[in-house]
């Protein structure tokens, strides 16, 4: 597949860029982090009053991590954000739900809960004032973003489906003609060759993960409100996706799949080595799926934010330099954003393709097993 | 490290919303879309196949037509040949009949001519005889007294003349 090779090369270039930017920032942010560690939360408020130095590491981490509200911008060090519902369960207080604006970014507590800024994590954590443990079920920024993306996907796909039932047998029209090549691509280039005969059973799931990852990746590149959240770059989201793939693989495993794991074609004394390796491989495959998507999308967000941070880092030195660097940063950010568009598709494709390959392994039946060995 | 620690709340939200998404999309989006796509592909395939069949049929018809045309042409040639032969025949026959008829007519005309010639000769003979008698009467009136004797003499002369005449005619 030559197109994949090209994309992989771009990936390599991107990974280099991530490295370079990371190296740049680690030198800049380490002393800041160190000083932050030394200070405690009481000093945090005092910092607000004095003119704060721009901390790219903090800004980037705050952006790519989950939070209890949707931060839009700061005006005079006062954050403007959209509050999101906090839902918790405590063994004594029971289920509690309220908007995160009640907690005023850590300045107030409400119903026994408060937000505490964790400097090493660069994010707010919800804790109980009395220090007891509780179950957090809040609809956080990423939860909201993924629900928004799901609804958007539902609206799009149901309207596409309506187009097919309404104008039966006719050529696709409008959004239908945009989605059809993608659907056919997943069916003909991913599902059919990787799974084989029984591909139809897995197709709905494969299409769902492909479009879910793709739409979330794309929304992640949009810097305005409903987009910009690092959904597919969050380990919890990729974990659930990988678990789905793992469960479907395991439950659709045919006789040959289990035979390959527990009765491999090796001398019996090798079983002591082979069976643990095979079982590890079973778990490792979805684990790698989870990490790949998470790392790629997070890296994409980091590098774009990194280029923007350059403007402010140099802007603090002198305005002229900041403006000069700004031109360079914008050019690179545009380049990276275009690259990320490719990555958005590529990662959705890779996740779907690998899932399809695992399903294919699970349902494969070796008719010629004896001839091969 | 918290970057790679899955958050419990997000896992729950993701699990619920993704399950619902898989269910609804699977039932109300992918099923009709994939069915419609398959149906359309089948209809296109059958249309192509029927087009191919029609093409084969057409070429068969074409070759049939050609052989028909060939046959018709052959028949026409035959008919023309026959007609030409018939025409020649008719002309020849007509010519023959005309020739026969004309020969017959000529013969008849000849006969007629002969007949009328003979009649004319006969008449002429009797007239000449009359005239000769008249002349000889006038001449003999003086020499011959009895007319019986005269008649006998004349008759004798005529017979002589007649035999001389027929001998000369033949």
Topology:
The complex is a heterodimer of chains A (373) and B (170).
Chain A: H1 2-38, H2 41-49, H3 56-64, E1 69-75, E2 78-83, E3 85-90, E4 94-99, E5 109-110, E6 113-118, E7 123-128, E8 135-136, H4 141-166, H5 175-195, H6 199-221, H7 235-251, H8 255-262, H9 271-317, H10 319-363, H11 369-372
Antiparallel strand pairs in A: 1-2, 3-4, 3-8, 5-6, 6-7
Helix pairs in contact in A: 1-9, 1-10, 3-9, 4-6, 5-6, 5-10, 6-10, 7-9, 7-10, 9-10
Chain B: H1 8-140, H2 147-169
Secondary structure: number of strands of chain A: 8
- Assign the structural class of chain A, choosing from mainly alpha, mainly beta, alpha/beta, alpha+beta, or little secondary structure: mainly alpha
Query: How many domains make up the coordinates of chain B?
Result: 1
List SSEs of chain A in N-to-C order: HHHEEEEEEEEHHHHHHHH
Query: Could you tell me the mean pLDDT of chain A?
Result: 84
Shape of chain B: rod-shaped
Strand content of chain B: under 5%
Record field, number of beta strands of chain B: 0
> What ranges of chain B have pLDDT less than 50 throughout 5 or more consecutive residues?
none
Give the helix level of chain B as a range of percent: over 70%
Straight-line distance between termini of chain A: 30 Å
Low-confidence stretches of chain A: 25-50, 369-373
Portion of residues in beta strands of chain A equals 5-15%
Q: Roughly how many Å is the radius of gyration of chain B?
A: 63 Å
Molecular structure report:
By secondary structure, chain A is mainly alpha-helical. Chain A folds into two domains: 29-140, no CATH class; 142-366, no CATH class. In chain A, 66% of the residues lie in helices and 11% in strands. Chain A has helices at 2-38, 41-49, 56-64, 141-166, 175-195, 199-221, 235-251, 255-262, 271-317, 319-363, 369-372, and strands spanning 69-75, 78-83, 85-90, 94-99, 109-110, 113-118, 123-128, 135-136. In chain A, the strands form three sheets. Chain A has a three-stranded antiparallel β-sheet, with no helix packed on it. The longest helix of chain A is centred in the last third of the chain and has 47 residues, at 271-317. Chain A is globular. The model of chain A is unreliable at 25-50 and 369-373 (pLDDT under 50). Chain B has two helices and no strands. The N and C termini of chain B lie far apart (166 Å). Chain B has one domain (24-169). With 170 residues, chain B is mainly α. Chain B is 92% helix and 0% strand. In chain B, 7% of the residues are buried. The longest helix of chain B is centred in the middle third of the chain and has 133 residues, at 8-140. The chains are: A mainly alpha (373), B mainly alpha (170). Chain A binds chain B through residues 61, 64-66, 87, 121, 123, 135-140, 142-143, 146-147, 150, 153-154, 157-158, 160-161, 164-165, 168-169, 180, 183-184, 187, 200, 203-205, 207-208, 211-212, 234-237, 239-241, 244, 294, 298, and chain B through 2-15, 17-18, 20-22, 24-26, 28-34, 36-37, 39-40, 43.
